[in-house]
From TrEMBL:
Family indicated by similarity: Belongs to the ABC transporter superfamily.
InterPro entries: AAA+_ATPase, ABC_transporter-like_ATP-bd, ABC_transporter-like_CS, MacB-like_ATP-bd, P-loop_NTPase
Protein's UniProt name: ABC transporter ATP-binding protein
Lineage top rank: taxon: Bacteria
Length: 247
């Protein structure tokens, strides 16, 4: 589904060039839920922004369902973002003037989809994420966990090939985080959704199939979940501790 091959990205500040991604390679299969973790400054957001086509990379390639989306033209990028990718952000990015139902429908409105079709799909997603009862409420009237579940529903409206989530539980307490991770897992189970999530939260990451750990702009290691999320969380915490120089 997603293949990242020998990706390099640097930022220029004045005369200085900072290499942030250095030969990053990995792949994600269809239907996988994968997290990327690592210390602050290790390049996680930069990696996500390159895959999202928000910023160009210097070298290497990014293949989405076999199509090379590296450094495409602006129009093509917009099409990929609208049709192939779904986004979930740390601060929800819901539109304050629209209710939950309308927010979830936004991607379909952009596509000018017939109302009845759009309504059926939105209702299905709201039900799946247990937010049907708040469909008529506005973002200011609902909890953070409910906002993020609405954002996950919105990301799924166009049946994207890949959902990109940037710290989706970063602003949530542990109960709400669990509900949001539950929404990603439900999307995986019911819709075979593929999700790539940047997170600092080992608890959330421990529900993923795989975790890619980054350090200094490279892939430090990849860990696979054996199905026991408690054991996986211990394993993750252990690797992060060791990487940070503990023991
Ligand atoms: N636009 C930019 N211009 C210059 N340097 C940047 C820019 N964006 C990020 N950086 C630098 O690139 C490095 C990697 O940043 P990035 O945000 O990708 O790391 P991260 O792993 O996501 O960190 P965090 O966990 O703190 O969000 C950092 O040293 C950062 O200061």
């Amino acid at each position: 589904m997603l293949q990242v091959n020998h990706l390099y990205k640097s930022y220029k500040t004045g005369n200085t060039t900072y290499e942030v991604l250095k030969d990053v390679s990995f792949s994600i299969e269809e239907g996988e839920f994968v997290a990327v973790m690592g210390p602050s400054g290790s390049g996680k957001t930069t990696l996500l922004n390159c895959i999202s086509c928000f910023i160009p990379h210097d070298k290497g390639e990014i293949l989405l369902d076999g199509v090379n989306i590296s450094n495409m033209k602006e129009e093509q990028i917009a099409k990929i973002r609208n049709e192939k990718l779904g986004f979930v952000f740390q601060d929800f990015m819901l539109l304050d003037g629209l209710n939950v139902f309308e927010n979830v429908c936004v991607p379909k409105v952009i596509h000018q989809e017939p109302y009845r079709q759009m309504e059926t799909k939105a209702e299905k997603l709201l039900k799946m994420f247990e937010i049907s009862d708040i469909a008529g409420k506005f973002p200011a009237e609902i909890s953070g966990g409910q906002k993020q579940r609405a954002a996950v529903a919105r990301a799924l409206m166009n049946n994207p090939l890949l959902i990109l989530a940037d710290e989706p539980t970063g602003n949530l307490d542990s109960r709400s985080s669990e509900a949001v991770i539950g929404a990603f897992l439900e999307a995986q189970k019911e819709l075979n959704a593929t999700t790539f999530m940047v997170t600092h939260d080992s608890f959330s990451a421990s529900y993923c199939d795989r975790v890619i750990v980054m350090k200094d702009g490279t892939v430090y290691t990849e860990l696979t979940n054996n199905g026991n999320h408690r054991e996986f969380m211990e394993e993750l915490l252990d690797v992060l501790r060791k990487m940070n120089g503990g023991e």
